[in-house]
Structures are given as C-alpha cells and as structure tokens.
Design goal:
Blueprint (H helix, E strand, L loop, with lengths): L5 H6 L4 H9 L1 H9 L17 E4 L14 H8 L3 H11 L5 E3 L8 H9 L22 H12 L5 H15 L16 E4 L5 E3 L5 E3 L8 E3 L1 E3 L1 E6 L2 E5 L2 E2 L10 H14 L1
Antiparallel strand pairs: 1-2, 3-8, 4-7, 5-6, 8-9, 9-10
C-alpha cells in the first residue's frame, strides 16, 4: 500500500519488534509526515486524519480514544495526526484497530442511476482479498435490501438481472445466470422482507484459517434455500455439507458448446 512513499514503506516492514522501533524513531516519523502527500490514501480508507480508533486490544488505558478520529485527537493533544496515529499504535503494540472512512456513496438515487446504466455490473472489488480488513461479499444482499426494498431504485427483476444474468454473460458463461428449462439448477430462494446482513455494519471474526489465523466475516439472514446443480447446499443459513458444485473454466465451456454443436 505504501510503495509511493519510501519512508512509509521502510517503516511498516519487518517483525513487530522491528516496526515498533522504526515507528518510534523521531527521524523516521519526520520523514513519514513529509511524505504524507504522496501516499495513496484512498487505498487505505481516505485521509489519515479521518481514521477513527475502533479497538485497543489488551490496552484499556487507550480506550479513551475509541470512537474518536485522529484529526480530533491530534487537535486535542497539539500534535500532527500522523504523530497521534503512531503514538497510539506504538503504545498499543501495533494491535490497535483503525477504522476507515465510508468511501462508498450513501445516496440511493445516485447509486441507483449508476447501477441501472447498461455498461455497469454492480459489485465490490477484491471481495475476498483483504481478509483482515473487510469483506465485500455482502454487496448482493445490500443491493437487494437498499436499492430494491428500501429505496425502490431498482425492481427485483433489474436487481436479479444485474446480480446474476449480466455478470455470467459478460464472463462468457452463456448457460448460467438465469432460470430456464435445461439450464443448470443453481437457485437461491430468499425471504425478501426479512433479508439482511448480520451484523449490518461491522463484522464478526472467525478463526478458521490454517494455524488458527483469523478473518473478518459477515453473514446474512433471510436466505431460505441455496441450490447448486439442483442439490440443496444451505437451509436457512445452515450448511447441508453437500458439495455438488464443480470448477468451471471458460475454455472448457467453449469446448463443451462446440462438441454439443457438432453433435447436433
């Protein structure tokens, strides 16, 4: 994230002990402040002064900062906002969790207009890449709840078209994304009125990676049945342990279609 700044790049690499030493060094901090303008801060949640303190694990003495922005803390303590961030981070042994600004639009009319555009496929980039920072896979539930049920900016038909048919066709999976006789029976049945993300804003933490590593997850309620190839894989959010799916490769699909055409 910090390749645009040699000072930040250097200071944020190494073991925790090495980083604590570097982030405490007055000269390193001075250079980090000087290079703030070249940081690509949109990639880490916007301007640094807008970040807020969310958690201070194992450090109750820092709990006074929770919910406050770095800009507010810096003004109250008479220091630069980067100094404030580094002071708190170092005092918390680099366990402190900073929450980023909301970067997405909260205006349903503007977002609805964008999503309805014929050249747009709604989605969230890096849906599973940043396991400790956020999880973007809930955008499908959010789109139906926010833009269909709550604001009426989309009809259900428009939402399903853009969440299922359109991305499948754009990716070249011509026999998927729709309900039709003879098509693979991948079907989701949900309770429209009770559909929601859980938790709605924040995330749970699951320790289900190898070596007990953790990741952030966000669940959903209201999904009654999920079927893959006609087999039920989830019932009311509970996994049935059925695994009827298979990996699809675009070139394999193209070959299958060619074979079917030649056989016909």
């Amino acid at each position: 994230m910090y390749d645009s700044s040699p000072a930040w790049n250097q200071a944020t690499q190494g073991s925790r002990e090495e980083r604590l030493v570097k982030l405490s060094d007055p000269e390193a901090r001075k250079q980090m402040i000087a290079e703030e303008d070249v940081l690509v801060t949109m990639g880490v949640g916007g301007p640094i002064e807008g970040l807020t303190i969310q958690e201070t694990p194992d450090h109750p003495e820092l709990e006074k900062y929770i919910g406050r922005s770095l800009g507010e803390i810096a003004a109250a303590e008479g220091k630069h906002h980067i100094e404030a961030m580094l002071d708190i981070g170092v005092a918390g042994e680099l366990k402190v969790v900073f929450r980023t600004n909301e970067l997405s639009s909260t205006d349903p009319k503007k977002t609805g207009e964008l999503v309805r555009n014929q050249h747009v496929i709604p989605g969230v980039s890096d849906g599973g890449a940043h396991t400790k920072f956020f999880t973007g896979g809930s955008f499908t539930t959010d789109l139906i709840v926010w833009l269909v049920r709550e604001s009426g900016e989309l009809t259900l038909e428009q939402a399903h078209y853009r969440l299922s048919y359109l991305p499948a066709q754009a990716a070249g999976f011509n026999d998927r994304g729709f309900l039709r006789e003879g098509a693979p029976a991948d079907i989701i049945v949900y309770d429209f009125e009770n559909l929601k993300r859980v938790p709605e804003v924040d995330y749970e933490v699951a320790h289900d990676f190898p070596a007990d590593e953790w990741r952030r997850i966000q669940r959903a309620e209201g999904y009654r049945w999920i079927m893959v190839n006609g087999v039920v894989t989830f019932i009311d959010g509970q996994c049935t342990n059925a695994t009827p799916g298979e990996l699809l490769r675009l070139n394999q699909l193209a070959q299958s279609e060619q074979l079917a055409a030649s056989a016909g």
